[in-house]
Design brief:
about 300 residues, about 35% helix, binds adenosine monophosphate, nine-stranded mixed sheet, single chain, globular, alpha/beta, 13 strands
Length: about 300
Amino acid sequence: MSLLVVGSMALDSVKTPFGEADDILGGSATYFSTSSSYFTDVRLVAVVGEDFPQKHIDFLKLRKIDIQGLERTEGKTFRWKGEYGYDLNEAHTLDTQLNVLETFQPKIPEGYKSTPIVFLANIDPDLQRDVLAQVESPQLVAADTMNFWIEGKRDSLLETLKLVDILHINEAEARQLTEEPSLVKAARKIFSYGPKTVVIKRGEYGVLLFTHDNVFSAPAYPLEEVFDPTGAGDTFAGGFMGYLANTMDFSEAAMRRATVMGSVMASFNVEDFSLKRIRDLDYKEIENRYREFKRLSHFEDI
Ligand code: AMP
């Protein structure tokens, strides 16, 4: 089944202890749609400026992502500049220039309106709600967010969360949003905001999936070298939501498999700068790494 995503498309400047690159392809919707395109049909709603290289749009087309909902308008593309120290789990934002995102008014193409699954990737929570107001009762709505919006648009974000079934959030941001140091308590507090499922991403320590009665813990893949963690969260969400859209099974067992699939995709993404490693994966590589995850965390009963 199809999956609709709204989020940012960006030109990023990223510095890690292993190298740096300027004006490289980034953005929450870019990572998400690329990752989910391995599993399902993806419909993209986003905006870029006049300066956005055509080759990046051609790449999305090559991945068979539906770009009818991608607008190119006057002005500059959204830009994010970030830096990582040796603790690659934490991105330090040096600069955020909203540019064309500031005046963006998403218009959902007629053919997108009945999409059964909607992902509100990291973007202004007002825009996340604008999109929901234009779609016809989707079966599943999931969202992501970050400190920039928690700090700058908290009330709007809480309004959006009332309409969301699954929240994807990283651990520092879960603590910041709820003012709870315990992730178990933080997840419970997030349930009270609206979502029935909370996925807390913990970088190299893996992911916790909270449903009302249960918690599932998936490891991260122990890579020898992590090159650039940018986009790991969005790539995770793409694998998770893409897998759910592919199976249309939203049971807890399916969400556990989706959590591992998300972790598989994120583990590829961090192996290189920008989207280099997830541009052209072979599905066999994805399956093989999924099985490695199974072996990695399997143990017998006592
Ligand atoms: P992640 O590492 O998965 O959290 O996401 C990194 C991507 O988020 C980068 O490619 C940025 O372009 C994008 N990004 C950073 N800040 C924002 C923001 N305030 N709103 C939307 N997207 C953002």
